[in-house]
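Researcher: Good morning. I'm working through a list of sequences from a screen, and I'd like to move beyond sequence-only analysis. For each chain I'm collecting a predicted structure so we can compare shapes side by side. This is the next one on the list. No need for commentary yet; just the structure.
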Amino acid sequence: MGDEPDNIIFLLDDITSQIFLKKISEQANEVLLNAIEDTGLGYTIVEFASGEMAANVQMKQNYGYGESERFSYKDLFAAILPEFREKIKLAVDEAVRSHGIYQAQYQVKWRDGSIHWLKAYGKPVYDANGIASHIIGFNKIISVD
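Model: Good morning. Structure tokens for this chain:
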């Protein structure tokens, strides 16, 4: 019984450290998202199982969509020119398998008919069972044909 206060102090110190680290992580994410916005990078998170996608405004614009327009993973993939689709799927599959980062350059066709080259990067995110559940992606327009 004599050492219970020490155990409580240790536990409180451990919890305080975890809260502090979580707060730093949240602030780092906020800084990172602001930096992404300033650099003109498109940013998305896609859930593999459902195909649900969250995207920033720049990501939408990189595919020819406006800020308030609905933009889905299906729309994103449909805009990619057909000759690049299989290569991108294979690159993502390899990144999932190897726990790596995929990189790709490909062309997208906007609804106005213009063609744009994008450079993209993505990193799978894994659940507690080691199964890839999401992918975090970034892209940027590198040229317009």
